[in-house]
Amino acid sequence: MSSTYQGRHYAGRHRVQRSHVRLPRALSASFVLPTTAAAALVVTATGATVAESAPLTLDLSGQQTAQVRNEQASDDAMVTDLATRRQASSMQTAALQGRVEAQQRAARDAKRKAADAAAARAKAEREGKRWVRAIRSGRITSDFGPRWGQTHDGLDFGAPTGTPLYAMSKGTVIMADYVFSFGNKVEIRYWDGTVSWYGHMSRISVFEGQTVMPGQFVGTVGNTGHSFGSHLHLEIHPSGGDNPIDPYPWLRDKGLLG
Ligand SMILES: [Zn+2]
């Protein structure tokens, strides 16, 4: 039936196949409302209304039937969709919970590690095993390695004469004297066996055999011996022998640079 249908019709002649749709009798296709009105409304398939002088008829077309079915299908789909979303939501919740638990675990681990590190630092502090800088100011003016056709066995820190120098950890002074080339020189053997050499010092303030602690003052920067300008010449001998290594990574690993 089209919206342009203008003709009269009788309810009795009206046939619509919809036996599979249960509707209240008042809304069924053939139910005719008695009326005395001269004009009545016929609801057509497309919802358009036309004035008629016939008894008021409610006409549910195939399209409307389909709409009812569609609505039912839509409801089913919504239920299914809701279930799917609930499932997805519970999976998301589980995943979120997993992440939260992982974060909590990581936080606990980090806290424990921090506590362990703090305890290790406290223990090292008690035992004098912490490491500190030999010089608190000054910048690196010459690297370890080949220099002027020779090998430079240490790291140079340029600093004014008189700049304080410190023992880098707990240890024993094994040499405190003036020697050729190095000028005033202090050697300290630390608790881990490493030996540091400080060269070209202007003043030596420790003696051989003296025990020193981390940060203890041992003398000052100078320009003695074979030196061109005031600086600390620092050598690191890991096993105490004449086996200097590049002090830079050694210092860096102990957090004594920058
Ligand atoms: Zn040097």
Would you mind describing this structure in some detail?
This protein is an alpha+beta fold and 258 residues long. It folds into two domains: 1-80, no CATH class; 139-253, Glucose Permease (Domain IIA) (Distorted Sandwich), CATH 2.70.70.10. Helices cover 28% and strands 27% of the residues. It is built from two helices and 16 strands. It has helices at residues 62-127, 247-253; strands at residues 32-33, 40-43, 49-52, 56-58, 139-142, 145-147, 150-152, 155-158, 164-166, 171-179, 183-190, 195-201, 203-204, 211-212, 217-220, 231-237. The longest helix has 66 residues, at 62-127. Bound molecules: zinc ion (ZN). Zinc ion (ZN) binds at residues 142, 152, 154, 156, 233.
Features:
binds zinc ion; four-stranded mixed sheet; 2 helices; seven-stranded antiparallel sheet; 258 residues; 16 strands; Glucose Permease (Domain IIA); 2 domains; alpha+beta
Residue runs with pLDDT of under 50 for 5 or more positions: 33-45
| Global outline | rod-shaped
Which sheet architecture does the biggest sheet show?
7 strands, antiparallel
Strand content: 25-35%
Physical arrangement of strands within the biggest beta sheet: 5-8-16-12-11-10-14
Tally of distinct domains = 2
Task: Briefly summarize what is shown.
This protein is 28% helix and 27% strand. It contains 2 helices and 16 strands.
What is the topological layout?
Elements (H helix, E strand, L loop, with lengths): L31 E2 L6 E4 L5 E4 L3 E3 L3 H66 L11 E4 L2 E3 L2 E3 L2 E4 L5 E3 L4 E9 L3 E8 L4 E7 L1 E2 L6 E2 L4 E4 L10 E7 L9 H7 L5
Parallel strand pairs: 2-4
Antiparallel strand pairs: 1-4, 2-3, 5-8, 6-7, 8-16, 9-15, 10-11, 10-14, 11-12, 12-16, 13-15
The structure holds zinc ion (ZN).
